[in-house]
Amino acid sequence: MENDNQNLQRTMTSRHIMMMALGGAIGAGLFKGSSAAIDMAGPSVLIAYLIGGIILLFVMQGLAEMAVRNSDARTFRDLVQSILGKYPAYFLDWIYWKMWVLNIAAESVVAAIFLQYWLPDYPIWILALSVSILVTVVNLLSVKVFAETEYWLALIKIAVIVVFIIAGLALLLVTFGNHTAVGFSNLTDHGGFLPNGPTGLIAAMLVVIYSYGGTEIIGITLAETKNPEKAVPKAVRSTLVRIITFYLLPFFIIISLIPWNEVNGVSESPFVMVFKMIGIPGADHIMNAVVILAIVSSMNSGLYGSSRVLYTQAVDGRIPKIFAHLSKNKVPVYAILMCTLALYMGVIISLFAGSKTFEFLMGSLGYTVLFIWLIIAIAHLKSRKIQPEKTSTYAVKWFPYTTWAAIITLSAILIGIIFTTSIIVTGITLSIYIFITLTYIYKGRFHEDEVK
């Protein structure tokens, strides 16, 4: 099976993986989760997203440095295993897989919710099924086709977010026609900047971490990226500036234009609400279309990431070899099909839970992103003692202070989230983690020599 692994084609460039990271992070968390975050924290949601963006920067810098120092790595497990050992690498691989398969299920439902803006007579499960089939087909094509599709989907939504920012700032600052400049009074009216206190800010961090999750997919692209030693650091630098910009500025505009306590409880995205305020005929429909494209783009990235985790597990003999089989287009077809089962599970759940499916899954996903970032940061902290330094290397400035800052902040957020999150969500997530741990113990007993 080692030959199969070598047949994965390095056809993705830095522009592809940069857009993949944006595609993974600018999805349902931004367009749908934004309502939940604003409802929890009010205007102080800006602080939550700023803190999350800084942590993300520190974690991704560490990921880039480890990728440069270990150019043979194909995925997270390869980066982490030589530093932290077998169990953390195994745990990281499977919670990352779990994150994406749950995420694509949740996002198929969110895409269906926004499709109902145009098709109110169609049930959510039929619309979610249609989106799921589309994403499956795109991923079964060649990696190059997938990467180009993801690139253009991400580019479209980024372009529209830029238009959203410009139009939103105009509504805030400029008086024209019958419109009076809104100004910034909504940031402090309606209960103040921190209307729900520190508890609301902490609770919103779970949504924030979930929203930013997906950027680390860069760590899954290593086996299919040209010159990963150069492409990955470049993609990290480019991606982080854009993500922080595309979250902080839109949120600033939303909570300045719309009273924070009027954002949640409506079916449409806050972005669609703002585009309605612009008054351009059909602007809300354009924005709704972009929201759907953004979510499909994020699902694309998620199916890619989860299938590559299964593929590398199969190549190394940890799961049945059939998942390492490559199609004529050099994609792991059975791994992809296995991961698409989550999409159709989401469709089945939505038959009973409807639009609540997303809210139910989002909490567990936030926990998982938190643990993924923690493991990456801890691995980076120890990496320089284990991995030899190269002559032309990407090095994180202010190491280890930035990494320690990420670890301490993430740990504090974890403690705060445990006390502010539904015990059902926490219990289900803990059960999944215990199950992953038990499978590791079981495999260790019978396949000690196979687990490297």
From TrEMBL:
The chain crosses the membrane at residues 46-68, 100-118, 124-143, 155-177, 197-219, 240-260, 331-354, 360-378, 398-417, 423-442. The keyword Transmembrane applies. It is a multi-pass membrane protein. The keyword Translocase does not apply. It comes from the Bacteria. It holds the Pfam family AA_permease. This is Amino acid permease. It is found in: Cell membrane. It comes from Peribacillus loiseleuriae. One of its GO terms (biological process) is transmembrane transport. InterPro entries: AA-permease/SLC12A_dom, Amino_acid_permease_CS. PROSITE patterns: AMINO_ACID_PERMEASE_1. Keywords: Amino-acid transport, Membrane, Transmembrane, Transmembrane helix, Transport. Gene3D superfamilies: Amino acid/polyamine transporter I. One of its GO terms (cellular component) is plasma membrane. Residues 16-428 form the Amino acid permease/ SLC12A domain.
